Amino acid sequence: MPGDALGTEAAHALELLRGRGDELLTIAELHADGVRAPAQALYELELAGYRLDRIRTHGAAGVGALGYRLNDPSGGDPARAAPAGGSRTSS
């Protein structure tokens, strides 16, 4: 099953992303939810074939941050996904 070969951190990040659906999840939120190395976990997901959207968000103080979400109609399963054409970045 996809995700079985993922490390603990990446598997936890994937669970959090799936739980959020279309809502964005920031690096800080991943870290607060127990992912010790969030950027590395996201990178591992991409290497495993999961497609992620990176979308610039603006916090209450006007500070920009990147939010992440799964970009995959199959629910994030790379075995059922269409071939990846790269992830989208929005401003």
Question: Could you characterize what this model shows?
Answer:
The structure is a single chain. This protein has three helices and four strands. The chain is an alpha+beta fold and 91 residues long. The protein has a single domain (8-78), classed as Arc Repressor Mutant, subunit A (Orthogonal Bundle). The protein has a four-stranded mixed β-sheet with strand order 1-3-2-4. Strand 2 (52-58) and strand 3 form a beta hairpin. Helix 1 (8-20) crosses helix 3. It is globular and about 40 Å long. The N and C termini lie far apart (34 Å). The mean pLDDT is 82.
Short recap of the structure:
Helices cover 32% and strands 20% of the residues.
Features:
single chain; 91 residues; alpha+beta; Arc Repressor Mutant, subunit A; 3 helices; 4 strands; 20% strand; globular
Helix content: 25-40%
The class by helix and strand makeup works out as alpha+beta
What global shape is seen? globular
Report on the biggest sheet: 4 strands, mixed
Give average pLDDT, whole number.
82
Instruction: Give the CATH level 1 class.
Output: Mainly Alpha
Gyration radius from CA atoms, angstroms: 13 Å
Strand line-up of the largest beta sheet: 1-3-2-4
- How far from one another are the termini? 34 Å
